[in-house]
Design a protein that fits this description.
This is Glucuronokinase. Pfam families: GHMP_kinases_C, GHMP_kinases_N. Keywords: ATP-binding, Kinase, Nucleotide-binding, Transferase. The chain is α+β, with helices and mostly antiparallel strands. It has 11 helices and 10 strands. The chain folds into 2 domains: about 5-190, Ribosomal Protein S5, domain 2, CATH 3.30.230; about 195-325, Alpha-Beta Plaits, CATH 3.30.70. It has helices spanning about 60-70, 75-90, 120-135, 145-155, 160-170, 180-185, 215-225, 230-250, 255-270, 275-285, 310-320; strands spanning about 5-15, 25-40, 45, 100-110, 170-175, 190, 200-205, 295, 300-305, 325. Strands 1, 2, 3, 4, 5 and 6 form a 6-stranded mixed beta sheet that branches. Strands 8-9-7-10 form a 4-stranded antiparallel beta sheet. A hairpin with a 5-residue loop joins strand 8 and strand 9 (about 300-305). Helix 3 (about 120-135) packs across helix 4 (about 145-155). The chain is globular.
Amino acid sequence: MIIETRAYARAGLLGNPSDGFFGKTISISVRNFGASISLYESPELHIEPQPQDLNTFRSIFHLRDSVNMLGYNGGIPLIKAGIKKFGDYCEENSIKLPNKNFTVRYRSSIPRQVGMSGSSAIIVALFRALMQFYKVEIPIEILPQLVMVTETEELGITAGLQDRVIQCYEGCVYMDFDKTLIQTQGHGRYERINPELLPKLYVAYNTNLSKVSGKVHNDVRTRYDRGEQDVIDVLGQIAQKAEDARTALLEGRPGDLHSLMNENFDLRCKIYNVPESNKKLINAARACGASAKFAGSGGTIIGIYKDDDMLNQLFVQLKKFNARVIRPFVV
């Protein structure tokens, strides 16, 4: 029997990037793109490499472009780290695994390094497959933490809980990463919001604007850890946007998210060095009448549009910046 599991791309609706700083966020899963795992029993544990894991290139320029898009390691380190952490979790919780092995392969349609969390999607899908294969239950509120430490402790990737929470819970989720909650129980307060309450959303991404999120976050992390009050204040204001959006959605005022999303991005610009190329994409979307903010660390934006005419304008205007516009499929 072949086990097939999947995890989806994500977009930060409000509150990002406060999630790594005990803030609050709302995120959606974007089912237009996903990572999938196929796993079946075999005599030995075998990880099947994908084309991006191979070390043969057409030319020096092919190698350069591959590294720029995929990094140096492809997906194999993610799979190895995820399997190790799953084994660690079982051992630490006295879960005895049966003596059987498996072959695993992964696939992903999530655009790389544009803030849609392609790496964590692979790990979430892997954990789901391993849980099925070994018949192990990991509480859903614990699973995002396991996925995060797989990346941070095993691979040295800068990561927060937001991406892993939405990929584990799916749909639309409000997250409160209260420091006391995180430190006492290892997870925050996660509340599902009915996606039918959401306004009309678009997502636009441009791989030419991609940034590795760890590099984007490093300076702010240092300033935050130093206790710089302006950084702490701005991150608090960004978190408040998520709380205000939650209230607006639950009270039937989805239109309020238009200004909240714009303000979220404007606050971000106060403490982050946002490249002009990214700002141009944001401004082009706003010129169409839509709201616009980063969906992650850069390269992808998200916002609200009014009607099909405005959506068509977004298609046309953002294409000038090599950006593809989609309507996110949220269930």
